[in-house]
Specification:
The chain is an all-alpha fold. The chain is built from two helices and no strands. It has a domain of 27 residues.
Length: 51
Amino acid sequence: MQEDLVRHGWPQSKINVVWNGVDPERYNPKNCKPEDVEALRKKYNIELTRK
């Protein structure tokens, strides 16, 4: 993406690259406590049947 922006005239010094990615261990839904999930569902009014 950075190369594409530079080709379109953006100065490279103005572009910061942020890599996509998620730590699968830290954000693994299996590591969530059921009571935390329930509290979030209640807070945002998400039905139990919805993913």
